[in-house]
Design a protein that fits this description.
The complex is a heterodimer of chains A (161) and B (507). Chain A is mostly helical. Chain A is 73% helix and 0% strand. Chain A has 2 domains: 68 residues; 68 residues, no CATH class. Chain A has 4 helices and no strands. Chain B contains 21 helices and 2 strands. The chains are: A mainly alpha (161), B mainly alpha (507). At the A-B interface, helix 1, helix 2, helix 3 and helix 4 of A face helix 8, helix 9, helix 17, helix 18 and helix 19 of B.
Chain lengths: 161, 507
């Protein structure tokens, strides 16, 4: 099964799961249309489209198997999925840290960590540049948003800062 | 009308509004010029900056970003041959060859002046047509609104590149996200998993930023190979040019300017088609009408004029659809509509009559953004080239920080940032599964309205055939079916010619 089929299966599972959940929604005797009326329409359409996607994927696999074997796929550009994984992990760490150490410290750590992951610094000068730009990012955004745009940024439970 | 417009212009000329408009146009130009950063991305990044501003200040900023972003793509397209935004692709066809011939100033200024005049001409249409179209929209009942939203969604889903099924499914996923939270009639919580936070549904902005911004940024990160700082800086070429001769080149072709503008406006008014289609269509038309079609692609000024005039005219057309009907035509206008909602403005047929000061303020901001754009380019075009060479290793962490601020600042709760991360993962997964994001975003924005109008219609009259027998509603539903059938036919035709390869996601 290709990624279309897998995506279709996930969407179908989600649609069916949510359809099951609509059965528990309370009905009102005053209103003819219950809270499950519209969700059921959307979820049934989602389930049908997902099933069609799975069917199309299976159909294409059968019809296109011979063709695919005959003509090789053009080589796709090499993708750096490791870096994507690191970015999500560093971002998740940032989200976890924010309420504990506050915006300024968490942002400094996040920007420095991500910059280092994207472009590993070699030598003291590059490290200094990374740290200065991370510090500048945290400070400038804090000043602009908190002081000039009246946006309250998260304060740290541990640092109260 | 002209009194209101003059009052609007006078109002926006106050520093209180002019400064945000200027800054919005500047950021839009830079965002538009940055390859890989689309106008939608720029608008999403700028949105949190407008939270603390009053509605007109905020909307003037966003209008500036939209206008500036549409023109900004021409700068990098003409100077380095890389379109800053997808819609500037046709500007590279003649802009870059002109630069290579040693005329970078002529290339860039033909683009900027054409954007300015195309946009201003579309402004006349925006101001003149919004009122009459809103009057038509006033006749709409819930049946017509429901059908109009379904039409917009089916158009967007059908016209996206790639699989029609995935376009439709993406739109329905957007709708499914909006069913989480209390129902609009009895406020019964649905799919909230017992949490108080989800009673109001998933917060719109963090979901939007998560899905869109993460999907785009992660796609950029995938292509990074490290040591980006080592890339040689681009040397800015001299951009001196006789503006009079450039203006003469444009005005000596009045039909080309007018026709390209008209193409841009019409494509902008129609939901779903977008700026790229407008520029490609205008370029194609210009080539067909030209006495020397063989000169296209070799530095022909007509190619730049057609492309850039239609690109900014498209902005004016899109604004008409938002202001008259309250429906977004694409991802950029969806965010614009979201910005209006955040500033407490309900866009739609009553918008101009109920909020004339803000509506005419937006018109004024739109008109003034064009000369501001020319002014900024006159002083900053060389500077933009330096900005666009900022390494992605520095740019992406800062964009992500702005995404967090944008998600957090609306309600000041950390749960919104968690939603941002969650939908970031969802958005990236959808892009990897080659789902188009535009229908999803439209479904997300229209979901609540579709539900409310469907329920209103059925509760007013239980006869479901009214959706088909009421003339406008029936016509719109017929158009929806036709758009899906057309897309189906088009996809089948294309399928015979090309096989799907690992294409770039549709932002």
């Amino acid at each position: 099964m290709t990624r279309d089929g897998i995506a279709g299966l996930i969407c179908l599972a989600l649609a069916i799961g949510m359809l099951v959940l609509t059965r528990g929604l309370p009905q009102s005797s005053f209103v003819p249309l219950g809270p499950d009326f519209y969700p059921r329409i959307v979820l049934v359409i989602m389930a049908v489209l997902s099933a069609l996607l799975i069917a199309a994927d299976l159909w294409q696999r059968r019809a296109g198997a011979a063709l695919a074997a005959a003509s090789a796929e053009p080589a796709a550009e090499r993708r750096n999925y490791r870096l994507v994984g690191i970015t999500f992990a560093v971002f998740a760490g940032y989200v976890i840290l924010l309420p504990f150490v506050g915006y300024r410290v968490a942002t400094f750590i996040f920007v420095a960590a991500l910059q280092s992951a994207f472009d590993p610094p070699r030598g003291a000068r590059r490290w200094a540049m990374v740290l200065i730009s991370a510090l500048a990012s945290a400070a400038i955004t804090f000043i602009v948003f908190q002081h000039y745009l009246s946006v309250l940024l998260p304060r740290g439970k541990w640092t109260d800062w | 009308m002209f009194d209101l417009l003059l009052a609007g212009i006078e109002n926006v000329l106050h520093l209180k509004y002019l400064v945000p408009l200027f800054l919005g146009t500047l950021v839009g130009l830079i965002g538009g010029a940055l390859p890989g950063v689309t106008i939608t991305m720029t608008i999403i990044i700028v949105l949190p900056f407008t939270f603390g501003l009053d509605p007109l200040q905020g909307l003037a900023t966003m209008t500036g970003v939209y206008v500036g972003g549409s023109a900004g793509g021409a700068i990098t397209a003409a100077l380095i041959g890389i379109p800053g935004t997808p819609s500037a692709i046709t500007t590279t066809f003649d802009g870059f060859p002109m630069t290579q011939k040693g005329q970078p100033g002529r290339a860039i200024w033909l683009g900027i002046w054409s954007s300015c005049f195309g946009g201003l001409l579309a402004g006349i249409f925006l101001i003149g047509a919004t009122g009459p179209l809103a009057a038509i929209a006033l006749e709409f009942g819930p049946w017509e609104y429901f059908s109009l939203f379904v039409f917009a969604l089916s158009m967007v889903a059908g016209l996206t590149e790639g699989s029609l099924l995935k376009g439709l499914l993406a739109g329905v996923i957007g709708l499914a996200i909006t069913i989480v939270g209390s129902d609009p009639i009895m406020s019964v919580p649905r799919f909230t998993l017992g949490t108080e936070f989800l009673r109001n549904g998933f917060p719109f902005l963090p979901v939007l930023i998560g899905i869109f911004a993460f999907a785009q940024l992660m796609t950029d990160i995938e292509k990074m190979k490290g040591s980006e700082h080592a890339a040689a800086p681009i040397k800015a070429p001299p951009l001196t040019v006789s503006h009079l001769s450039v203006l003469w080149e444009i005005f000596s072709r009045p039909f080309l300017l007018a026709w390209s503008t008209l193409v841009g406006i019409l494509i902008g008014v129609l939901p779903a088609i977008g700026g790229s289609a407008a520029t490609v269509m205008a370029y194609d038309q210009a080539k067909k009408f030209s006495k020397h079609p063989e000169r296209f692609g070799k530095g022909n000024p007509e190619g730049i004029i057609a492309s850039e005039a239609s690109c900014n005219a498209n902005v004016g057309g899109s604004l008409v659809t938002i202001m008259a009907f309250g429906i977004p035509g694409d991802a950029v206008t969806a965010v614009m509509l979201g910005a209006m909602t955040i500033h407490g403005i309900q866009s739609g047929p009553l918008f101009v009559s109920q909020h004339p000061q803000i509506a005419y303020g937006i018109y004024a901001a739109y008109l003034l953004a064009h000369p501001l754009m020319v002014l900024i380019c006159a002083f900053g075009a060389r500077l933009f080239l330096r900005v666009v060479t900022v390494p992605k290793s520095m740019l992406i962490p800062n964009v992500l920080v702005l995404c967090v601020i944008g998600a957090f600042a609306l309600n000041n709760i950390m749960e919104d940032v968690v939603v941002l991360l969650l939908f970031g993962l969802v958005g990236y997964a959808l892009v990897k599964a080659r789902f188009p994001l535009a229908p999803l975003i439209l479904g997300l924005i229209l979901g609540d309205q579709i539900e409310v109008n469907l329920l209103r219609a059925i509760m007013s009259d239980a006869n479901p055939w009214l959706f088909i027998t009421r003339p406008i509603s029936g016509f719109l539903l017929a158009l929806s079916v036709a758009s899906v059938l057309f897309a189906l036919w088009q996809h089948r035709r294309q399928k015979g010619r090309t096989r799907e390869v690992d294409q770039e996601p549709d932002f």
